[in-house]
Each structure stands twice: as structure tokens, then as C-alpha cells.
Amino acid sequence: MHQHLLHASRPTLGFVGIPLAVPCPVPFFECQAAYIAEHLARPAGRAMTSEPQRTAWLQGQMEAVGFDAGRPQDLHLTGAGGGSPWRYMRELLAAVHADLPPTADGESWLERPTWEARLETVEAVYRDRSARQPQLPWHDDAYRRCEYTVDWTTGSWAVDDSRAKRPTTKCEASAA
């Protein structure tokens, strides 16, 4: 599957949602859906990729995950070969916008530059939330009680972690 989406030799066959270890499903699948939609919408003479390009990408992915060495299950890891899911999403968006760069007055959300900015905001919130997760299973998982507020027009966000602070019990207070 070229870009984990399109059959390399039958590019009208595509699937959204195949990759493993997806950090944020909604924006991830939006990027994939936009790529497939752009691919299918293009006229035959203006294809996004050729069959040799799709096959070469697939070959590179197979080498990166050690497909021939017995790791076929890793074929759909977006982090293979030093990549990341976030880089993968940006690559898909770059390919979608290669012929028609987004403009502020685009007719659909796919044609507006805010999509890339929104992806940056989602990544920043995701990284902050990940940094708050406990390192060991028995550590407190108070990060789940954090509340995020996002201003999508500016891309700014804030986190209220006041509920994440673990209340001190009577036993802990006397031990301190």
C-alpha cells in the first residue's frame, strides 16, 4: 500500500486507517482521506504519483521495517525508517496541496491554510498530554483529569491541571 493508502499497482483501491500506532485518529484519518480524495479527483494525465513511484515507496518501506527479515507486521508503522506519524500527516498534506496551495478564501476547509495550523496545534496538545502521562503503570494517572482549551483561530491553547493535582490524604499528610 503506497503511503499506507493506495494499492501500488491498482491505485483506485484505497483504504483509510491501516497504519499502526496512530497518535490522534481524527486528524490522521482526515489527512489520509484528503490524500485519497485528491488522488481520485485528478485527471489521468495529472496523477499524483506513477506506478514506479508507488512501488519504489513501498520497497523503501519494506526495507525500513525489515519485511524480508521476518517483520511484515511492521509494514504499516509510520515511524519506520526514522519517520513519525506527524511527519507522515504533513507529507500527505503537502502532496494534497502541491498543485493548488491553500488560500485564506478557499471554498472548502481542504483549501485553507488553517488545516496545517490546526494540525500543529493538535500535535502540541498531544505532546503536552503525553509528557504528563505516568512513567510507570502504578504511578498516578492524574493527567487524565487535565482540561485543554484551544483557540483554533490563533492556534493557542491552555491546560487547566488543577483537577489533576492529587489530593493529599490524612495518612500522607502525617507522613510528610
Descriptive report:
- By secondary structure, the chain is mainly alpha-helical.
- It has a domain at 1-100.
- The protein contains 5 helices and 2 strands; from the N terminus they run ααααββα.
- It has helices at residues 25-41, 51-65, 85-96, 114-132, 170-175, and strands at residues 147-151, 156-160.
- Strands 1-2 form a two-stranded antiparallel ribbon.
- Strand 1 (147-151) and strand 2 form a beta hairpin.
- Helix 1 packs parallel to helix 3.
- The longest helix is centred in the last third of the chain and has 19 residues, at 114-132.
Helix percent band: 25-40%
Low-confidence stretches: 168-176
Helix and strand string, N-terminal first?
HHHHEEH
Mean pLDDT: 83
Number of strands: 2
What structural class do helix, strand and pairing data support?
A: mainly alpha
Continuous helix count:
5
What best-fitting shape do the alpha-carbon axes yield? flat
- Report, as a whole number of angstroms, the end-to-end distance: 58 Å
User: What fraction strand?
Assistant: 5-15%
Compute the gyration radius: what is it? 21 Å
Largest sheet, strands/sense/barrel: 2 strands, antiparallel
Strand line-up across the major sheet? 1-2
In short:
By secondary structure, this protein is mostly helical.
List keywords for this structure.
mainly alpha; 176 residues; 2 strands; 5 helices; 39% helix
Break the fold down into its secondary structure elements and pairings.
Layout: H1 25-41, H2 51-65, H3 85-96, H4 114-132, E1 147-151, E2 156-160, H5 170-175
Antiparallel strand pairs: 1-2
